Amino acid sequence: MAARFLRDFEPQHARRILDELAPSQQMRKPIENFDDIPVVSLEETVESLVSLVPNVKEMVSKPKDGLTTNESASIMLYSLEWEPRENSFDIILNNTLRAEDKEKLKPWQLY
Questions:
Q1: Residue 65 per-residue DSSP state
Q2: Closest Cα to residue 101, out of 22, 25, 31, 24?
Q3: Which residues, at least 6 apart from 24, have a Cβ–Cβ distance to it below 8 Å?
Q4: Strand ranges, E, within the chain
Q5: Which of 61, 92, 104, 107 is geometrically suited to a Cys-Cys bond with 48, CB 3.0 to 4.6 A?
Q6: Is the Cβ–Cβ distance between 81 and 11 less than 8 Å?
Q7: DSSP label at 50?
Q8: What is the pLDDT of residue 96?
């Protein structure tokens, strides 16, 4: 059933699903201490990501749905695909979340 489902998807969508379903090699420690981080605008959020995600500032735009500008743009950033694919926001974020070194999460705290 999963194979038929993935076959009907475009290749980039299948890669995203498989990336999320790929079993982790080991259990990771939970991410902690995010409760005290303030909610800020998306523009402020991406400032610390400029060196990590190519063109991230250019990808922030006004929403055309019922969400706030920040909510909509955050989802859009995560959903967009960069060229090459490994420069995509979701790939970089997911790899960072899976990393052993939780210090690498610091630039992502506001997101």
A1: S
A2: 31
A3: 98
A4: none
A5: 107
A6: no
A7: T
A8: 93
Query: Residues near 54 by Cβ (< 8 Å), separated by ≥ 6?
Result: 82, 87
* Distance (Å) of CA 97 to CA 1, 25, 85, 101, 103: 29, 13, 18, 9, 10
CA 98-56-18 angle, to 5 degrees, is 40
**Cα 49 → chain centroid:** 11
Greater confidence, 23 or 27?
27
**Segment 34-73, tens digit of pLDDT:** 778 888 887 888 888 889 988 888 777 655 567 887 888 8
| Distance from chain centroid for Cα 57 | 14
d(CA 69, CA 29): 32
Prior bond to 23 cis, omega within 30?
A: no
Q: Two tokens at 36?
A: 């005290």
Residue 111: closest CA among 59, 100, 19: 59
Q: Which one has a higher pLDDT value, 73 or 93?
A: 93
Where do the domains of the chain lie? 40-111
Q: And the tokens for 17? A: 């699903």
